[in-house]
Amino acid sequence: METERTDFLIIGSGVAGLRAAIELAPHGRVLVATKDVLRESSTEYAQGGVAVALSDEDEVGIHYEDTIKAGDGLCREEAVRVLVEEGPERILELIGWGAEFDRTGTKLDFTLEAAHSRRRVLHAHGDSTGREIERVLVNKVTTMKGVKRLPFSMSIDLIAEDGTCYGAYILREGRVCRVVARATVLATGGGGQIFSRTTNPEVATSDGMAMALRAGAVLEDMEFVQFHPTVLFAPGAPQFLLSEAMRGEGAVIRNIYGEPFMKHYHPDGELAPRDVVSRAIVSEMVRTGSGHVYLDLTHLESRFVKERFPRIYRTCLQFDIDITRDRIPVTPAAHYTMGGVRTDCDGRTSLRGLYAAGEVACTGVHGANRLASNSLLEGLVFGARAGMAAAETPLTMRELQGLASHPSGPWATIEDREEKRTRLRRVMWERVGIIRCAESLERAKKELSSLAGITEERYGTRQELELKNMIQTAIVMTEAAFLRRCSIGAHYRSDHPRKEGCLHHIQWRMDEEGRLVPNRA
Ligand code: FAD
Ligand code: SIN
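A: This is the predicted complex of the input protein with succinic acid.
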């Protein structure tokens, strides 16, 4: 098997991976392996903005309080402190590298999003914040000599033995090679594709979580999936996000009879926490027997809407919806994975030599529910920290001879792959979605067990490997949702609607027989 050696291997090229690469470049050879083109990532599609306490009316302490409150009692305070305290420096640094956030005159323009008590969300080109951040980071990485970029290179498994990670097996042009590294940074993003309704791009298939689990690392808080309330629901249209910033600027949610209803559910109305808004929409859809609700901006000045949300305006227009005149049909969709590979505040996982940052990681910074626009900041802050910590990894790269080769064939194939993928995503959306209960979770467990055999084989194509990872992660999410018999943050059990007994984390690892072992922490 072909082997490539590098000092640092980074898997994934969104905000977290690229920010880690920038930190690592002065310390040795860096290889960024990513499964599609470099920019394809959730980061590229992020709309609303990046939260940071930089405005005159804001303070780091207030950002801290808002984040803790959104996390509903399960945030790790140290991680939140790191995020809000280091956030301003990371953003100013990004501006120094050329990021152009929107301004009024010379002053940075801050918008409001749900559960923020201040206007603190920076945005770029109206609603293309992630694209601007990704542009700047890609440019920066491209100018760094020590960073090698490897697009269309899918990591299929970590190389791990005796609690240490030595790199990863990479599938590239139909062949598997071995990349051996002093330290490996997982930055593979989330797993929204596990659900049939999602804002996430195709690459978000939870690969990092599944690989880490198989390699012996600990996952945490896997039951916490954030559902975004307002995602386009129109025939033939993609599941396109309609940014929360629209509600921050005054958009109203109405039921199919045109009635606003959010104030009946929460005093903060449209700007209540996301889980509350998503559940209110589901209740209203059930109450009115409808498949969607409406997001309404028609009362706002048309020029303002077009200038403030140019990308959303253009996209909706392609599907015959003029958002300045028409109400937009929307429903919630899976959006962000709060759980992930358990790390400390420096990205260290439970495996030596393996670091994780961004959406794949669980530092505990989001607790049971992420505060809007905190994840781009998370990628910058914890990506940089993981890079710094990885740079310190001692040179323990062991002799290769002992390391197992990944079998490069013959590979198994998955019969009726598309049908199974659809089935998985539907089960997760219908039974492990916004509202869960013991019965729905039992049924999900049963249906997933019929797909579980897929996780035991090795495959040679991206689509098959992705399905395997999605099934493996979905099983952990479902077991975790089943085990947590209470409701907190984004995890809502209709059979246990109260929060009592809910203030703990659930960690998962895989034992040598491949069984999932939970641990309450
Ligand atoms: P990503 O940006 O998703 O990058 C993951 C990378 O890993 C990709 O390059 C992918 O190709 C690669 N990868 C995955 N698996 C493998 C593998 N097996 N091998 C190799 N490479 C792999 N957050 C905010 O803070 N503000 C917002 O306004 C906002 N808006 C959003 C809008 C949308 C539509 C979506 C989907 C998310 C939004 N979020 C927002 C969330 C935020 O964008 C993400 O949480 C964040 O960008 C994740 O960054 P990341 O670097 O961890 O992962
Ligand atoms: C949005 O623009 O609504 C997404 C913001 C986020 O997920 O943080």
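Residues 407 and 458 are 8 Å apart (CA to CA). The pocket of succinic acid (ligand 2) is lined by residues 47-48, 243-245, 335, 372-373, 375 (CB under 6 Å).
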